[in-house]
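Hi D.,

Good news: the full-assembly prediction came through. Inputs first.
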Amino acid sequence: MSPALRIKWCILRTSIAERLAYRADFAFATLIRFLPIVTQVFLWGAIYQATGPRDARVINAYTYGDMVAYSLLVMVGRAFSSMPGLTTGIARDIRDGTIKKFLIQPIDMLDYLFWHRVAHKLVYYVIAFVPFALVFWLCGSYFKGWPGAWTISGWAISLVLAFLIGFLIESLMGLAAFWFLEVSSLVFVYMLISYFLSGHMLPLDWLPAPINAWIQLLPFKYLAFVPAAVLLEKYDPQQLVLELGLGFCWVFVLYLLNRLALTRGLRRYSAYGG
Amino acid sequence: MPIIEVNNLAKHYHVYQKRAGWMASLGGLFHREYKQVQAVRDVSFQIERGEMVAFLGPNGAGKTTTLKLLSGLIYPTSGTATVLGYVPWQRDNAYRRRFSLVMGQKNQLWWDLPAQESFILHREIYSIEPAQFQRRLDELTDLLEVRKLVSQPVRELSLGERMRMELIAALLHSPEVLLLDEPTIGLDVVSQRRVQGFLRHYQVETQMTVLLTSHYMKDVEALCRRAIIINEGEIKHDGPLEEILDRFSSVKQIQLQFAGTEIPADVEKYGRVVERIPPRVKLEVLRQEIPRVLAALLDRYTIEDVGVQERPLEEVIAELFVRKEISTPTGGDS
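Then the structure:
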C-alpha cells in the first residue's frame, strides 16, 4: 500500500474507533433518526386519505405507495448526503485554533476530514442497516419489485454523488468561518433551503416548470431527489447518464471552491485561540 | 548557517473595535471601526543548530505570534523567515516533517481514544518505519514515565500526563526544530519538573533546536542559556540569560541572619528591606556598594549567617515588562 493510501486507511480506522467510543449515544442517535420517516409516512397517509380512498388517489402522478417509496428512498439519500456537525466542527476548529494540527502536520485538511466523515458514515450504515432493512421490509409492497442492474448501478453512483456533494457543500460552509467565524446562521439557512431544494420535503417534479427548471441546475437535488428518482426509474438511460454526469461536474466545481476557500482562508487566518 | 533566521518580521492584525452597550452593537451592524494591532514589529534574530532559546515577554508581547509565523500557521505582514532553509508559511510538506509545534493549551491527540492510536496515526502521517517507531515510542514513554498510560483514553489522563503524551506525539518523527509554547502551563510542580528534566535530557541527546516560550522562569532557568525578550512586538534583549541580570538589575540581595531573635532597627540604612522574617532579613543593595555595605554590616552586628545573591530572574523580567523603557535590541548574538 502506498504511503498516501496508508494514511487514509489509518485515518479511517482511527475515526471508526473514535466513533465507537460512545456506543450507546451513537446507537441511540442512529435509531432516533428513523422517527421522522414514520411521521412522514403517516402524514402522507392522512393527506392521501383526506380526499378519497387512500390507495386510489394520485397526486402529481404519485400514488400513496409511490410517495411512501419516495420518502423511504429520500431517507436513504439523506443518510449519505447529510453531514451532521461537519460545518460547525470546521468553524469551531478555525475559531478556537484546533485547525493548527492540520497546518503543521504533512497532511491535507480536506482529505483528513473526508476520510473522517467516511468512517462516521460507515459506522452509521452498519448500525442503521437492521432498522433500515426492517422499514423497507415492512413497506416492501410500495415498491414495484427489484430494479435492473443498470438502475441499481445508477442508484449506487447517485448515492456516492449524494455523499460527495453533501460533504463538499458543508465543508465549504465550514471554511466560510475563515471570514465570518460564526456560521450557525448559514447552517440554518442551508438546512432550510436544502430541505426544500433537495426534494426532501416534496418531490422536485411536483414543482411548477420554471421553478423546477432552475432547481434542476443546482447541486441540491443530488442530496435526496436524484437517488430516489433513479431507483424509482424516473429517468430514461440517457437522462440518467446526463444527471450523473452533471453531478460529477458539481463535485468538481465544489471541490475547486473548497480548495480556493481553504487557500484564501488560510491567508487571512489569524490562528485565534492561543 | 543558522537553523532559524528571522529578518524584520512583522505581523499586523486588523482588529474590530466594539464599544460597550446595545446601541453600539446595533451601530456595529452598519459601521465598524477597526484598529491596526502590531503583534510583531520588525523582529530579527538567528538561532543556531542545537541551541535552546527562551522567548520571553508579557502576555500579548508577540511571542506566540512569532511561533505561529515560524510554524507556518499564519502569514507575515512583512519581513522574511527561514527555518531549516524553508519559508514556514509556504507549508512545504518537507518542512512539516522536520519540525514540531507544541502548544500547552492545545490538544493534538484524539480526545476519546488512547494516545497509542494518535501515535500510530503519526507513524503513518510522518512515514516512520515501524521498528524505528516502536523504538522511539518505547524510549519516549520510558523517559516521560507514561508507558502504562498509552492505552488509556486521553480524556481520562491528568493534565500533566496529557502534556507528556503531547510531547511524545510531537517528537515521534524526530523533529530537528521544536517550537514550544508554554509547555508547562497549568502543570503542578512535579509535572513541571518532569517535563523540564525530560526536555533538558532530550535536547542534549538529540541536539535538537528548541525555541521555548514560558511564563515560568523556572522552565527558562532550567533549560535555556540564551533568552530573547520581546515586548510590544519588538525584541528588547537577545543574549545569555545571565546577562539579563547584569544589564537590567543594578542591585543584588544580601541575606543576613542575626544572632538572637530580633532584627536591628537601623538595618534599613544599609539597603532596601525586601523580606523580614526575624532574625533573618533580605536587603537590596546597589551592585557596586556590596563590598562596602557587607563590611559595615559585619563590623556593626553579630551575624550568624550571610549570603549574597542575584535578584530572582523572574522578578527582574517582570519589572522589565512593567517598565517598558528597556534599551534597544542587542542583535542576534548569544
